[in-house]
Amino acid sequence: MDPQTVKTKQVILVSYANEGPVTGDHLKTRETQLNVNGCKEGEVAVQNLWISVDPYLRLLMKEVNTGLPSQNFTLGEPIVSRSVSKVVASANPEFHVGDIVLGYSQVSEYATLSGSGLTKLDAHVAPLPYCLGLLGSSGLTAYVGLIKIGEAKPGDEVFVSAAAGAVGLVVGQLAKIKGCRVVGSASSNEKVKVLKEEFGFDDAFNYKAETDWDAALTKYFPKGIDIYFENVGGHMLEAVLNHINLNARIPVCGMISQYNENWKQHYGVRNLLNLVGKCAKMQGFTVRHYLDHMDQFREEMIGYIKEGKIKYSVDVKQGIDSFLEAFNSMLGGKNIGKTLLQL
């Protein structure tokens, strides 16, 4: 087989972003070439179609690991994210040219990947972007946090922070399906309206407008909070802990309000003793430890989609050169739903 070289752009980490926003001083686009027929045994060459843009990537751009099980990105190398890709060459008998696959890839137009971490996708089951969001890691995160850790049951009072994000939208709708009352917080009046009118939240509030969060939670949760799906950390977590009920559950998905800070400047929550007095459970998790629930999750979620019980929203940016814009838009809360890069 004759070598075939293609031009490809990659997003490279050129400087650690230890604190503050990520800028062009930290991430740059580099053009290089890739021999797509140069796969070693077990590898495939892919053209990336969709790339997931997620908050946790911010932590991997720092010099020091801040607690995630993933390794931080290496200076001078492409960053990596979840992707949906098309196989363009293969030295792996499990995959053929034209297959659509899900896996982790360099944030690039083309890449060579190990076949061991890839899953074939059926584009007829659901739109491909859903495989990175609603039917992918974002949806599974919502499912595991609310159902497996939060143990949601009818009548529970559920609060979701960052409720208009990729995970929060799914959490709120799943909670309604399970018979809970759901309130979300979001960063704009537009998002509050969308949560209530399009995604079925019982109520929602703009945390930038209602800045006394203790008063807001008193108003929206007169019966207290049974489940707090934690996405933001910091002052919001502290406010919530003053309103939790006996045996409350707090699945901790992330703490996005702290991601741009050096860990020594993170806000120290002062009322953790409430967890003791309320016999509450607060548990962090990553979905990589719950992949055995994926089949059950997908079966249940596809059923909800077909029944019209679950809706989703994607915020799509075009082209590899738009990655930094997409990333900062997502981290700044300008998205509704899942942020994706389409190539």
UniProtKB/TrEMBL annotation:
It comes from the Eukaryota. Keywords: Oxidoreductase. InterPro entries: ADH-like_C, ADH_N_2, ER, GroES-like_sf, MDR_fam, NAD(P)-bd_dom_sf. It holds the Pfam family ADH_N_2. SMART domains: PKS_ER. One of its GO terms (molecular function) is oxidoreductase activity, acting on the CH-CH group of donors, NAD or NADP as acceptor. The keyword DNA-binding does not apply. Residues 24-341 form the Enoyl reductase (ER) domain. This is Enoyl reductase (ER) domain-containing protein. It comes from Araucaria cunninghamii.
